[in-house]
Design brief:
about 475 residues; mainly beta; about 30% strand; Neuraminidase; four-stranded antiparallel sheet
């Protein structure tokens, strides 16, 4: 009996010592956030972690009229406030704005991992229940402030992406792509959802973004992985990750419904789907580059390789391409933690186009096609960096702009340009808000969802660009 007690005490001592070291001596970045950005980022060595660095800023909200900081010539003001965890945005043709008030579905609980995950979510301001609602916001007088709002769709399941195609509004729940009938000017939809396809749910990454092709015949669906590096089993990520010939599996229509860490291509009218690209750990925002019409996305890369590695990224998404997860990152750097190894896939790993810094958590993406901020913000991509949890010091927590050339790619010497900052406190310990979805409104301003501040910010030019949005159709 005494021997058992001594063993338990020894284990407890080791755990306490480990927790002390974890809390007081986290892995610290040796490179600046900016160094790990660009077409050719500076890549440090991987520092494998059994106990992760955890540095989450405490959410405090925006007090006494505070707002994000913008550069000269740019104005920022609330478009709508007092929302319930606003995450994703979509503009309807008549100028109405839809916002998904949403959060993670109930997560798997139990055990040490579940306990830690609960602490992290609560600390980050993401522990609140999902409202499971899409709200319609309308600016009737064109002054840049929503003066009407209505519960547009309710009873959803952690909804995220939205897309209007003809008379159908498509919504990505965490576990299915569904659609509803819509006609211009609707302020509420009471019809039941029609399911298009099931989507793999559960696990770490719950948000599903969607983007309709210009002809409306296809819908692209971004589905994040169930884990960090497939530590829960490759089979949890879909058949494509366990197959000897994964590129053959990608061509199978039924495989798409089970595939994670990928972008799927769905044909709504036949309710069929295929894997468009895979090996993307957690893709979120998607948009078509206006010069080339090519599909782009932003991706959250893996954790627990130290504060400097690897970079999250912005990339063009090529049909059939493999981007490395979980075996490789940034075009072929091997993650030694993943078993079984797949050296046969390394030569097929596509390198991303633009690094956004380590652990910055890019979510929202919008190109400057119809934005009217002018000057250095005329040609490129706006990216919302939700902010790190696995880096010391913190990174992200801002809206940045990536300059592009006329060839439809980021400039070779470009670095992300800060557009909205001030979300993160100066001491790095508190956060007033966290940017998520980003779109343009009918007047050419940007709208940025802030899921911690529970507000949508409107970002506009003060140097001649139109201020007011087009009045919505009644």
């Amino acid at each position: 009996m005494l021997k058992r007690i001594l063993i338990v005490l020894a284990i407890l001592a080791v755990v306490l010592i480990g927790l002390f070291i974890w809390a007081t001596q986290p892995d610290k970045a040796k490179l600046s956030e900016a160094a790990v950005t660009g077409v050719v980022p500076q890549l440090g060595e991987a520092r494998y972690q059994d106990i992760p660095t955890v540095r989450i800023a405490k959410p405090v909200g925006w007090a006494n009229g505070a707002r994000p900081t913008a550069p000269a010539g740019i104005s920022v003001a609330p478009f709508a406030d007092k929302l319930d965890h606003p995450r994703w945005l979509y503009r309807l043709p008549n100028g109405d704005v839809l916002v998904a008030e949403t959060n993670s579905p109930p997560r798997e609980s139990g055990g040490f991992t579940g306990w830690i995950m609960g602490i992290l979510l609560n600390r980050a301001g993401a522990g609140v229940p999902s409202a499971n609602r899409i709200t319609l916001l309308r600016d009737t007088n064109g002054d840049g402030v929503a003066d009407q709002r209505s519960a547009f769709l309710e009873g959803l399941n952690s909804p995220s992406g939205m897309a209007l195609v003809g008379d159908w509004l498509y919504v990505a729940n965490t576990d299915a792509l569904v659609r509803f009938p819509y006609k211009t000017g609707d302020t509420r939809i009471a019809a039941k959802a029609e399911k298009i396809i099931d989507l793999a749910g559960g696990g770490n990454h719950w948000a599903r973004n969607i983007l309709a092709s210009p002809d409306g015949k296809r819908i692209y669906v971004a589905v994040g992985s169930a884990s960090n590096i497939a530590e829960k089993g490759l089979d949890k990520e879909g058949d494509i990750y366990t197959a000897d010939s994964p590129f053959a599996v990608a061509k199978q229509l039924d495989a798409a419904k089970r595939t994670r860490a990928a972008i799927l291509e769905v044909v709504p009218e036949t309710k069929s789907s295929r894997v468009y690209a895979w090996g993307l750990r957690n893709p979120n925002g998607m948009a078509f580059e206006p010069h080339t019409g090519n599909l782009w996305t932003v991706v959250n890369e893996r954790d627990m390789l130290g504060s400097d590695m690897p970079p999250d990224y912005l990339t063009q998404v090529d049909f059939g391409a493999f981007y490395g997860w979980p075996w490789n990152y940034w075009g072929g750097y091997i993650d030694k933690r993943v078993t079984p190894e797949r050296p046969d896939l390394r030569e097929y790993t596509k390198r991303p186009d633009f690094a956004l810094g380590a652990h910055t958590a890019p979510l929202g993406l919008a190109f400057a096609a119809d934005a009217k901020l002018g000057g250095k913000f005329a040609n490129g991509a706006f990216v919302a960096l939700h902010g790190s949890w696995n880096r010391e010091p913190p990174s992200g927590y801002k809206l940045v702009f990536v300059p592009f050339g006329d060839n439809g790619y980021p400039l070779k010497t470009a670095k992300p340009v800060d557009l909205l900052t001030g979300f993160l406190g100066k001491d790095g310990k508190t956060v007033q808000g966290r940017p998520v979805g980003v779109i343009t409104d009918a007047g050419g301003a940007l709208l940025v969802a802030d899921d911690v501040g529970n507000v949508i910010w409107r970002v506009s030019s003060t140097t001649g660009a139109p201020i007011a949005g087009a009045p919505a159709a009644k």
